[in-house]
Design brief:
Strand order of the largest sheet: 3-2-1-4-5
Strand content: 15-25%
Order of helices and strands: HHHEEEHEE
Length: 152
């Protein structure tokens, strides 16, 4: 183990000290601020996507292990539709459909699970359009958004 702190640990006090971080940000021009904001958003989105995939894989493994699905085969894909009401922005719904290796499907409600909070964060980054579907391939980790007009 090194005696030197990692770069993240070395800079965290700087980033939490408002006067220092504000003076650093004030020194940046508009283009540099835009680039910094883009990079931060890109990294944050990547982390949320990794967290969501991990939560879905863990939950699907537990459902399969505990026999809580309608079919004995492992889950390979999960499809979320959108939730829309008059008060909240469109987001990915907590009620989803899992697809098993055999092609069979099982409805799943992710309310109260680890998936719930991460899916909310994911919705804020993806800004889904009403009627869209999000398909997560648990094998490859690929996230695909399909419009309402595209086949399932």
């Amino acid at each position: 183990m090194s005696d030197h702190p990692s770069p993240a640990h070395a800079t965290s006090p700087v980033l939490t000290t408002e006067s220092i971080s504000d003076s650093l940000l004030d020194a940046l021009d508009e283009q540099q601020l835009d680039e910094l904001a883009r990079r931060i958003s890109t990294r944050r989105f990547a982390r949320v996507e990794v967290q969501l995939l991990a939560a879905l894989r863990a939950d699907s493994a537990a459902l399969h292990r505990d026999g809580l699905t309608d079919h004995p085969e492992p889950v390979t894909h999960i499809t979320f539709s959108t939730h829309d009401n008059d008060y909240d922005p469109v987001c990915w719904d907590l009620n989803a459909v899992t697809r098993h290796e055999s092609g069979a499907k099982t409805p799943v409600d992710y309310s109260g699970t680890d998936v719930e909070g991460v899916l909310r964060d994911y919705s804020s980054f993806t800004s889904p359009v009403a009627g869209s579907r999000l398909v997560v391939d648990l094998s490859t980790g690929q996230f695909t958004v399909r419009g309402a007009w595209e086949p399932a």
